[in-house]
Amino acid sequence: MFLDPSEAGGKPSNQWRADRGPVPLVHPAIAYLLLVGLPATGILVVLRLGAALAAPSAPRATTMSALQLPAARDVVLRLDTFLIQIVIILAVVQLVGVALRKVNQPAVVGEMLAGILLGPSVLGALWPAGYAQLFPAGSVRFLASVSQLGLVMFMFLVGLELRPADLRGRGHTAVLVSHTSILLPLFLGTLLSLVLYPVLGVQGVSFRAFALFLGAAMSVTAFPVLARLLADRRLTGTRLGVLALACAAVDDVSAWCILAVVVALSRPGVAQTGLAFTLMGSIAFVAAMFLVVRPRLAWLARRHAAEGGISRGLLGAIVIVMLTSAWVTQKLGIHALFGAFVAGVIMPKSPKFMRDAASPIEDVMLVVLLPLFFATTGIRMSLDIFQGSAMWTFFGLVLLVAFAGKLGGSAVASRMAGISWRESLSLGALMNTRGLMGLIILSVGVDAGVLSQPLFVMMVLMSIITTIATTPLLSALMPRPARARPDAQRFPEALDVAPQ
Known about the structure:
Structural class: mainly alpha
Order of helices and strands: HHHHHHHHHHHHHHHHHHH
CATH class: Mainly Alpha
Shape: globular
Radius of gyration: 22 Å
Number of domains: 1
Distance between the termini: 15 Å
Helix content: 55-70%
Number of strands: 0
């Protein structure tokens, strides 16, 4: 078993990192070659094979960009309509979230489903007149614009909670699992693109961009949702929890780097010089943030320690760094969310500073802005696409690839590293959680014009189903919650994995 020694009456839980860990079933180099090297080679082969494929003839304008909804240009949204939209969205999100928590589902699942309830598939079908009055044609673009600020804040907080030092010094188990859970879903996503691109692709989007985007969407893990699930089940301080958090952090960083490249590739009419500028500019931006900006942000931590908390001036400085970074990456042609994520990563990593900085941003984001994002995501969806066996078949393939790539890949890699099947499958179930991160990546794909409407709906439903499945799978595999370290916090002091 791969458990905290304190659970078996052994040495204290804060010493379990000093042991030797599980005995690998397969030599680490061989396992890495099989689970990482082969999928990486397969991706290159698939991209070469798919280069000859053509997308269907539907024009690019049929993609569902948040700012290209029907009649969006000439709509003037009345303030009373805008306010009642927000009131109803917040009320539905709260009600559904409470209901889902009663069946041991994370609140984010309820929020995701609330968006669908408010969309054309449910509210629009049951009460067309009320739906049309609540969401006049084109008015949703205002909600979408406001919700983008919520996504920027969310990605900043994801970066804030990520400590680069936590990704170093990990043993071969974490390396193998994290790299497998990135490369295998990426490979399977690109392989699936050979089937989906000729039917569900978008004219003007290359197979390369389409396939890499689909693979990136399959590769992501919802780091914040996973962290909350571990805390709820008191698994944060166990080796399983530490390993899951480290792997999820690596997954998200990798998925966003891949996504930045895909967004640059997907811009219509991009020339090689333009692509080179975007990629080189992005590399220069990240280097400047870590080498120039990050050291100069140390004064934030000193000021915070001197004042004993986050003052309005400090909060204002943090927000300026966040929004400026988002603006730069948006101008570079990748996405504002990538810049916000990097801004969070370079912030001081004192646990108290992280908690105090996150609190005022998180309150507004969780209560108001993210529910607007869920609502606009649901309004973009129409389940009418599931007409005929072909669409159901495609959706089944999407689900199969999603579960096989993340859950199956993580579980097999863990088992090869010597972890028991029960905990290997538990780790796979945790890594398969996509949650809000999945929806955010899909939103980026929509705004970049990479996704057609049917594929967008399928991928959103896949993100919801994989998130819903995590709790029952974990309950079946880990029926008795493990004992957490008494000092486990939302921002743990260390997430390193035992030397292997």
